[in-house]
Amino acid sequence: MIQHLLAILAAEWSDGSRHIGIISRSNDQRETLKTVILLILVVLHAIAIILVFVYIAYTVYKVFPILTIVESRLSYEAIPLQEAGGMSRELNSLQTEEPSPTAQIPLTSSIRRMHELVKQTDHMWLRRRGLGALAVYHLANSLVIIPLRAVPLVPGFVWDAVAVLLTIQLHTVWVHVIITPPTAKPFWKRILPFSTVFKATAAASLIYCVTTELTIFTPWLAAQVLRTPFALSQIQKKPSELWKVLLSIGIFVAIQALACAPALVVLTRIQASLLPEGEGTIVPVDRTFGVEKERGKYGEAKGLSIFEALKSFNGSWTRFYKLCIKIFFLILGCLVGLGTILGLEYLALRAVGILV
């Protein structure tokens, strides 16, 4: 009798263990499925975020402003005149034609038009073309700065300016690559002589370096002097000091708009004026920039002066600043949209039990 009871208990224990094992395996499979789903979502999100980030951070933030700066309509079109005897006949035969309103609108007047433009000229939306040249420029710049910064008693911004001057050829060729149609010629074969680029761009490069440093240093100095509270908890404790935050931000925006942006315009237009004569551009560019310049033995122009670069940009400042504002709100909208999507997905994953 006792043996019979022990046999029954052993059988029940075996069934219970088997049932527990099945439940355990089921839980393991469920956890594995959750992990796989999460990994797939992470990979898909990473790919999407990287593509959007590259497009916004490179094409929109860096390429579009350069195209806007260099676009300029021809102020006049030279008409070859025949000899004096046939001049009146030629003038009488000329047919004037009013340009269409669409033709008069600059290609860089809107982000949508520039997107279509770069899509037509480069199927990768300029994400690759020019990106390699810019990467090489930043790499060379870093290799120059790192040993120089080891020198004591010299401010870092001095070596930053020196590095910019020593690598200005690479930055100039990057500008040339993104404003010209795709070509089989590698960018390093398009680099202009150092002396030509240095003479034309040294002063403008230094001005741009100084304004960039001022953009960072001046708001920081103002914040230190005013003891500006940037932490949200500090602002909540002292709401009356919010004006200090707004003042620091205002100083930053003012220097960006009134100093840094004009310096970028000057430097970019001088670099664009060095483009060899035989190379075309993807946006209309007055290759004379309103100034007659001699060209060097390689076909490159001697370059504009700072005053000439500023003067030749008259009439385009509004378009340029509008683009900057549009880019700011586009980046802000992308960040808000990304945060909203991730938040909704998090709530959805919690609702279905994938996230706890």
Key features?
single chain, 356 residues, mainly alpha, 70% helix, 0% strand, transmembrane
Walk me through the structure.
With 356 residues, the chain is mainly alpha-helical. It has one domain (2-13, 47-73, 107-352). 70% of the residues lie in helices and 0% in strands. It contains twelve helices and no strands. Helix 10 crosses helix 11 (306-312). The chain starts with a helix and ends in a 5-residue tail after the last helix. Residues 76-99 have low confidence and may be disordered. Keywords: Membrane, Transmembrane, Transmembrane helix. The chain crosses the membrane at residues 36-58, 131-151, 157-179, 200-222, 242-267, 327-349.
Whole-angstrom Rg: 31 Å
Order of helices and strands: HHHHHHHHHHHH
Question: How many β strands by DSSP?
Answer: 0
Helix content class:
55-70%
TL;DR?
It comes from Xylaria multiplex. Keywords: Membrane, Transmembrane, Transmembrane helix. The protein is an all-alpha fold.
